Here is the input.
Amino acid sequence: MEENSREGEGSTMKEEKINPFEMAKKQVDIASKYLNADPGLLEKMKYTKRELIVHFPVKMDNGSLRMFTGYRVQHDVARGPAKGGIRYHPDVDLDEVRALAMWMTWKSAVVNIPFGGAKGGVQCNPKEMSLPEIERLTRRFTWEISSMLGPDRDIAAPDVYTNPQVMAWIMDTYSILKGYSVPGVVTGKPIELGGSLGRFQATGRGVVITTLEALKYLKKSVEGAKVAIQGSGNVGGISAEHFRRLGAKVIALSCSRGGIYNERGLDVTRVLDRKEQYKCFVCETKDETEVTNEELLELDCDILVPAALENQITEKNAPRIKAKIIAEGANGPTTPEADEILNDRGIFVVPDILANAGGVTVSYFEWVQNLQELIWGEEEVMDRLTRIMQRSFKEVLDISLAKKIPMRTAALVLGIGRVVEATKLRGIYP
Ligand code: NAD
Here is the structure.
């Protein structure tokens, strides 16, 4: 939640709305061909378990009441409690939340942590709301969905335009309802309230760790590699800073209003600080130029990191993508049609359910620390994160090579396979 102006919201990216839930179900069909499993169980994977739609009023600063619509969807809990972020965005709808919940299930299974998948969202534009309005919206939404939440049931986390402060309000509201503090009901909390060291950096770090593994496999170096990043929030911003530290050249960064490009490499910290100040990217030197979100995706670069919203790489622009590696920080940035084109063109894709799984991995660490009342040091968190991301990358790559299938299909085969197996072992009751 890093911008305050609403100008340009959503206008730069989506020409037509591709239904993400249809896309997610199509991915299950693609992976199912490589899974030797009961067709009935594979069909089950395409359904969400539980969905709640809530309409609720919020008192605005001018004294008026405004109605909002929110969602919480649990996709699957065979492997553990449901887990997934909460998004505040004007485009949030039920199918988007369903797709994001399904991807959370596969993601938790790919990195082999004992969580199922969930997601939530409120259709709103936080950029045109004051902080007290966002707080009232958050507390009321938490109350509305509280019957689904709980540290053993369904654990929330940040997503687009929600942040540690929002998580603190969720935790506080849920705790008031229970009568005692329940830090384990959300992850991505401020450190002072039981948040884990390293959680804020986790998703971006995971994107970089898996990209490094891809580079190693392709026998390329990160040193001097040209990186273009769409989105500069939690995932995009942290990835950019870490790539820069490792000696890569971050040549472009963007936000909802467009981006900034310098083929010699941006001074990432300075550019992000300026963005914070002006609420958009402002060119400062003669080497820097403006770039649209569409242009950014097609820049001549080695690594492309989509780190904003869904449906950015489609059959329309996939033929023009020049990157050699795409590391998906965002959830669902590539359509199945685009996937085929990228695959034919030999572009190496580190798929979302692997590349951005660092977030849920450290969320799991945060939950474990909360339940056991432990505090781990940052080094311990990062070591554990690195090991899990490297192991998961290798597992996906091995399947991809053995079955001669793209990395996304391999990740889906691994994730869905684990969920199907867990479902089979538990059995269908009654
Ligand atoms: P954020 O709110 O911190 O940042 C979102 C970024 O997207 C901002 O830079 C914003 O300007 C940009 N953006 C919004 N609308 C845009 C548009 N129309 N065109 C271009 N850019 C636009 O959110 P985040 O947490 O960084 O999430 C980004 C993506 O990563 C989402 O797909 C999210 O689901 C995924 N993700 C996040 C996490 C996490 O831990 N935060 C974990 C896994 C996946």
The longest helix spans residues 378-403. Residues 2-14 have pLDDT under 50 and may be disordered. Residues 61 and 137 are 12 Å apart (CA to CA).
